[in-house]
Amino acid sequence: MGKINSVNLSPYNKLYDNTMNVSEASREIMWNVGHIGNSIAMYTLFALSLAIASLGFLRHVELWISGKTAPELKGNYLTRFKNLFVWGAAQKGVVRSKIPAIAHTLVYVGFLVLLFTTTMVMLDHDFGIKIYHGRFYLLLTILSDVLGFGVLVGCLIFAHRRLLSKPDLIHSKPADYLFLGVLALLIIQGFLLEGLRIYATNDPWAYFSPIGLLFSKFFWFLSIKATKSLHFITWWFHTITVFLVFALAPYTKFFHIISSSINLFFKDSGRHKGALKSPGDLEAMMEGEEEFSLGLESIKDYSWKQILDLDACTSCGRCQDACPAYNSGKPLSPKWLILDTRNHAVALHSEDKLRKSFIPKFLRTFDKFLTDTFFLSYSGVNKTENGFNASGEYRAKNPLTQTSVKSLGINADERIAGGVIDPDVFWTCTTCMACVEACPVGINHVDQIVENRRNMVLMHGEIPNEAQTTLRALENRANPYGAPEDRINWTDGLDVPILKEGDSVDILYWVGCVSSFDPRKQKIAQALVKIFNKLEISYGILGKTESCTGDPARRLGEENLFQILAKQNIATLNSVNYNTLISNCPHCFNTIKNEYSEFGDIGNGKTPKILHHSQYLTKLLKEGKLNLKEGTEESFTFHDPCYLGRYNDEYEAPRKALKAVKGLKIIEMKESRNKGKCCGAGGGHFWMDLKIGERVNTQRVEQAAETGAKNIATACPFCMQMLEDGIKATGRDAEMNVRDIAEVIADNLI
């Protein structure tokens, strides 16, 4: 392939010369604009744009470091670089939704190739490294052309979503149109320049620039002189546009390329996935002499990582689309929670109300002008006499989300919950982690929600009335149901070993409050006991000494009560000896496995296994210890508990347990596994009914009913209650049942 045959494309242009050798393929860099004056002007503009961009970047950094320290994010760099590659470079979080994935991939890959090509041009022209020629030149030329066109296609897909299809997860502001418009303009300018050059120079390698070649056909009527003049004007238009984009990147949506990448590098929290951010040991803190505040009251209480979370948001709306609270008509939109807090922080920072800046005042004044003009104004935040206002701007179809923001940028000491954002935004969260799972840039919305609750409860005594009743019960009798002595009533008539101090067993069965006190959920515990006894497993329960793990207290913001219960339970756990702890409640399982380790050792110096009962049942099945009979031909759909799935990445164990019963027909819901919809019980909502919007559990039952299955299987007593209530509320009592996987297995034992 040393030579290319001559091809006559038109009567006006003979584009190929068969004497040209592939190794000589190249083009004149800076064609038609190579005059020294152009170069001086270009590099002067570049230096100016670099200075403005650097100012904007430094102001972003100042905003981030205005936050408190986050020592848990130190170290673990191998995992962090892996996250940056998998979630950043490989775009794992973006490609999960088909249409946005196609559009974003076209823009992202095209942008990278064009950036790489521009870098090669710079190395060749500015540094004298002769690399932009031969086959490498031809490869870059055709890739840049084709994938550059892909960027244009991606922009058109995004424009179609924003202007025509308009899904609710997207709110379109001038910032979005500016981003898409400028990106498309840059690509079109590039093709115009390429077409003009090809037409004027009779480029022998034009076939390697198919889009540019196509553009060249539109200039057939121009003389060479006119073509050069138009090229010169277009080149400067393009150059100025590029430098404007570069200069203003920190004040536009372009900056998400940097902020989201940094955030993804720090995606790993440094703690167990299912654990909430801890304020530390409150007992030790209260014994100290220093005053302290708990939770997030004002923007001053946010850590640098939490502020980086705010700044990294691309407003893609995936979190809102996944949120059960938003989709059931409640005021919480995780997207707007982040954006409103971000806009509040940015507005305060532009006014120098967050921290002392090392940047000269005249530069900060210029930065404020750019921030107010482009970042805030183009994001729908307008300057007023007293601060900033976002009301009246379209936010979402949900009317409560539309009005959930209260005030922005007035005072750095303004409370976030109640001052900046409606408190109901925080209380309607079910802590299901669907938003965190959906976010492609590593934002943890739930941490910020729970920490705002923590401040409301512990520093201001603000909590919904129904939740107060539950917390008082936990404080007085260590469970939300009844007298501690009634905890073992479910064992009547069963052979259940109740452990005393010093006893040793292989399996410690942590029953949990719901399965101990609620008559329907007691059947789950009884099913497990039937299995244990059938297999003659060495096991026991703690009986009356078992208490609530504190999960509802912690999720409701009552951190002090949680820690008291945790320490009591740790002492109880250390009073007996065991190899494995099993719980049929994902909330208990998650709390003991992921959150108790901060407050003490739970295994008397050993490291016991902590398993959910679905994992243990699957283990028994794998070992061939469970012999099951042929099941009836019943249809089941499985509901994934959030605290088992998204909190602990366990999706397969309960399904394997169900599938082990031959004859059962398992039908998946449309939203399952990591995209499974919450039942509505998490975040303390099992214990309070805020009566805002629709019920989440009825929506989940509707999804289950769409499968045609007659039974909903689950692996959580809270989910069971919510789904049974949803079945009654939707009038399906006679046609649908809810069963725990342990009940299904126990009923089919041989």
Q: How do the strands line up in the largest sheet?
A: 4-3-5-6
Rg computed from alpha carbons, rounded to a whole number of angstroms: 31 Å
Indicate the proportion of strand residues: under 5%
Question: Largest beta sheet, briefly?
Answer: 4 strands, parallel
Overall SS class? mainly alpha
* SS summary, helix count: 30
Q: Return the average pLDDT rounded to an integer.
A: 92
Rounded to the nearest angstrom, the distance between the terminal CA atoms is 73 Å
Number of strands: 10
Helix content: 40-55%
What form results from the Cα inertia axes?
Answer: elongated
Describe the oligomeric state of these chains in a short phrase: single chain
Which residue ranges are poorly predicted, with pLDDT under 50 across at least 5 consecutive positions? Answer: 1-16
